[in-house]
């Protein structure tokens, strides 16, 4: 629904609705922040891998 039509339907001035839409968009959380966190986690070195000498080569059985 357009802002103009909503204003006519609910009886709210157009300028008030525009202000509320802008305010809501500024207060919403950004969806990009989890992606930034994932990228930073990918750049950290992995130090928790436990590689023993006994299983140095993978064994594939059929």
TrEMBL record:
Gene3D superfamilies: Homeodomain-like (1.10.10.60)
Origin: domain of life: Eukaryota
Coiled coil (UniProt feature): none
Pfam families: HTH_psq
Residue span(s) of domain HTH psq-type: 1-26
A cellular component annotation (GO) from this entry: nucleus
Signal peptide start and end residues: none
Keyword Transcription set for record: yes
Alphabetically ordered keywords of this record: DNA-binding, Nucleus, Transcription, Transcription regulation
BP GO annotations: regulation of transcription by RNA polymerase II
GO molecular function: DNA binding
Keyword Cytoplasm: no
Protein name: HTH psq-type domain-containing protein
Organism: Angiostrongylus cantonensis (Rat lungworm)
